[in-house]
C-alpha cells in the first residue's frame, strides 16, 4: 500500500490544481471530520478531465446536457481519487473547501468548517476499485497523523452529514473493506 504524507497542508503524492472555490476556516477550528463523496462527469462516465474542470470553474455548459445544469456552481473538494488511485488536490487542507453544502454532524452545522472532503471518481452503484480503496486508506492515515483531532470515528459519507439530500458514497462503497485497510499498519 502506498505511503502518503501531508506537508504544509498539502498531500505530497497529489498533483495540485488550485481551485478558486475555498475560503478561510473559522479561527481555532480543529479538523475532525473526513467526508467521503463520489462524483462522475458526465454522470456514470469515468476518465477525462471534466471533474477537474468542474472544480476549477472551467466546465463548458455546451459540452454535455448535464453540464448546463452545473456549470455555474462553485464547488470544490480537497482531493479527488480517480479510478486508478491517482490523486489530485484542489484546496490545501487548512482551507475550507466547498464540498458538503448544507450539512450537520453530531449537532454541528456547516461541516465544511471542520472537515476535509475527498471525492472518489464513481457512482453510488458502481463498485470502487482496489486502487481507490488503497489510496483512500493511505490518505486517511496520513490525514490522521497530520490532524490529530481526526480519528476513524470521524470518517463519514456525504450521506451521513446530509441525509435525504445526498446518498454518496452509496451502497457500492464497502465500509468494512475500507475500515480493514485503514487499520493496517
Would you give an account of this structure?
The protein has 185 residues and is α/β, with parallel strands linked by helices. It has a single domain (6-41, 74-183), classed as Lysozyme-like (3-Layer(aba) Sandwich), CATH 3.40.80. The protein has helices spanning 50-55, 65-70, 130-146, 158-161, 175-183; strands at 6-7, 10-11, 15-16, 22-23, 33-39, 79-81, 87-89, 96-97, 104-105, 108-109, 115-121, 155-157. The strands form four sheets. The chain has a six-stranded mixed sheet with strand order 3-7-6-11-5-12. A two-stranded antiparallel ribbon has the order 1-2. Helix 3 crosses helix 5 (175-183). The model has no long low-confidence stretch (mean pLDDT 97).
Sequence of strands across the biggest β-sheet? 3-7-6-11-5-12
Mind telling me the CATH class? Alpha Beta
Radius of gyration: 15 Å
Assigned CATH architecture: 3-Layer(aba) Sandwich
Q: Indicate the overall shape.
A: globular
Largest sheet: 6 strands, mixed
What count of structural domains?
Answer: 1
CATH homologous superfamily - what is it? Peptidoglycan recognition protein-like
Average pLDDT across residues?
Answer: 97
What's the number of extended β-strand segments? 12
Helicity range = 10-25%
Distance between the termini: 10 Å
Classify the secondary structure makeup into a structural class.
Answer: alpha/beta
CATH topology: Lysozyme-like
Number of alpha- plus pi-helical segments = 5
For this entry, give a set of tags.
185 residues, alpha/beta, two-stranded antiparallel ribbon, Lysozyme-like
Question: Can you summarize this structure?
Answer:
The chain has five helices and twelve strands. It is α/β, with parallel strands linked by helices.
Amino acid at each position: 500500500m502506498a505511503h502518503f504524507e501531508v506537508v504544509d497542508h498539502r498531500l505530497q503524492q497529489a498533483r495540485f490544481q488550485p481551485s478558486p472555490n475555498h475560503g478561510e476556516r473559522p479561527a481555532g477550528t480543529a479538523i475532525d471530520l473526513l467526508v467521503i463523496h463520489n462524483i462522475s462527469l458526465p454522470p456514470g462516465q469515468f476518465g477525462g478531465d471534466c471533474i477537474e474542470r468542474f472544480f476549477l470553474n472551467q466546465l463548458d455548459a455546451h459540452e454535455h446536457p448535464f453540464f448546463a445544469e452545473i456549470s455555474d456552481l462553485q464547488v470544490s473538494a480537497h482531493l479527488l481519487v480517480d479510478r486508478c488511485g491517482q490523486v489530485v488536490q484542489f484546496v490545501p487542507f487548512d482551507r475550507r473547501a466547498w464540498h458538503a453544502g448544507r450539512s450537520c454532524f453530531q449537532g454541528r452545522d456547516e461541516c465544511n468548517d471542520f472537515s476535509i472532503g475527498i471525492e472518489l471518481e464513481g457512482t453510488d452503484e458502481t463498485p470502487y476499485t482496489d486502487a481507490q480503496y488503497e489510496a483512500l486508506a493511505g490518505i486517511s492515515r496520513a490525514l490522521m497523523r497530520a490532524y490529530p483531532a481526526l480519528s476513524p470515528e470521524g470518517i463519514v459519507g456525504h450521506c451521513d452529514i446530509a441525509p435525504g439530500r445526498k446518498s454518496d458514497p452509496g451502497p457500492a462503497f464497502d465500509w468494512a473493506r475500507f475500515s480493514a485497510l485503514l487499520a493496517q499498519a
